[in-house]
Task: structure prediction
Amino acid sequence: MMFDKSAQPGREDPATPGALHVAVIMDGNGRWAQNRGWPRLVGHRKGAERVRKLVEACPDLGIRYLTLYAFSTENWKRSTEEVLGLMTLFARYIRREADRMKREGVRLRFIGDRTRLDDDLQALIRWIEAETAENDRVHLSVALNYGGRDEIVRATRAMVQDVAAGTLSAEQISDATISRYLDTRDLPDPDLVVRTSGETRVSNFLLWQAAYAEYVFTPTLWPDFTPATMGTILKDFAVRERRFGGVKT
Ligand code: IPE
Ligand code: IPE
Ligand code: MG
Result:
């Protein structure tokens, strides 16, 4: 299913205007496992399988950009066991999926503050980003140690440094300038943000970028989320009227 995105005022991908960008807050892994009496990490593992299936289905769903919230700046509060388990899972996903991503034309990027991740994971991230840099069929971005406020803080610091260095002036700073200093500088704004598991909050995800995104909240827990679930959500999204501050024409 494909969508007409005419009249989209958000930042667009100039190379492919109209390309659909869907962002997902993948929530509910822990509850999915706990409902079955299993450790939370089993839910995260099942969740990773769901990611693979969804990425594979993106071309058929008409999704060119898929951005997934995998670990927030607040998720460090969880037990050491869960945090380490998740980090291991991210590394394993990169290693195991590398060939498939290359075959399927998936470009993988990471957003978030990677400097707090361990050195091996940082090296793996640099490697997979370089390995898939030429791919253009599906742009997969994974938000790891990502927080919208943290991203804005880091962008502000970088802008202030450039002003001090004389390469940027206060007058030059516009909406577009700020977008260029964010981790998402190479991505169009999301059209749609989906959150699974029935929670109806944003939890610090893409605060700046989602200014005009549509939101869909589904009760489905992430480990139960299939490409068909996404297909149903996209059908509903396609008939929504996006006004971007204007009036109905
Ligand atoms: C989302 O599932 C995955 C991460 C935040 C890493 P949760 O782990 O938050 O699952 P629930 O919300 O506890 O069910
Ligand atoms: C949001 O889920 C972060 C991710 C999905 C990675 P959380 O489960 O961490 O969010 P809260 O705590 O319910 O707000
Ligand atoms: Mg949660």
User: Anything to note?
Assistant: DSSP finds seven helices and six strands in the chain.
